[in-house]
Amino acid sequence: MTRKTSEMPKLKTKSGAKKRFKVTGTGKVLSAQAGKRHGMIKRHAKFIRNARGTTTLSDQDAIIIKKNFLPYA
Q1: Domains in the chain, CATH or no CATH each
Q2: Sheet of 54-56, strand order
Q3: Which branch of life, at top level (predicted)?
Q4: Is pLDDT at 29 greater than 80 in this prediction?
Q5: What CA–CA distance (Å, rounded) separates 24 from 5?
Q6: Residues 34-58: what's their mean pLDDT?
Q7: Comparing C-alpha atoms, which of 51, 53, 49, 69 is closest to residue 61?
Q8: Rounded to whole angstroms, what are the CA distances from 36 to 32, 43, 54, 60, 61?
Q9: What is the rounded average pLDDT of the residues 39-43?
Q10: Cβ proximity of 22 and 30 under 8 Å
């Protein structure tokens, strides 16, 4: 079966992005807090506590992620 010449192929989602980001129902992009891979011994308990869980990306960053890395989000 051949594809019509007027149809464009589907865009691929970047596999690294689908592991790192989640798009909510309202269109916001969630990601894990940065800076927690190593070096926690010199961090204050408040920093470690606040860096738990996920954070919401800014609007401009969310636009870039959805447009370039998650085309069907």
Answers
A1: 15-69 (4.10.410.60)
A2: 21-23, 29-32, 54-56
A3: Bacteria
A4: yes
A5: 35
A6: 95
A7: 69
A8: 9, 10, 12, 24, 20
A9: 95
A10: yes
Reading the block at residue 21, the tokens are 């980001």
State mean pLDDT over 33-45: 95
> Long-range pairs for 56-62 at CB < 8 Å and ≥24 separation?
56/28, 56/29, 56/30, 57/21, 57/28, 57/29, 57/30, 57/31, 61/29, 62/27, 62/28, 62/29
- What is the C-alpha separation between 58 and 46, in angstroms, rounded? 23
Please give the pLDDT value at position 3: 66
Strands (E), the chain: 21-23, 29-32, 54-56
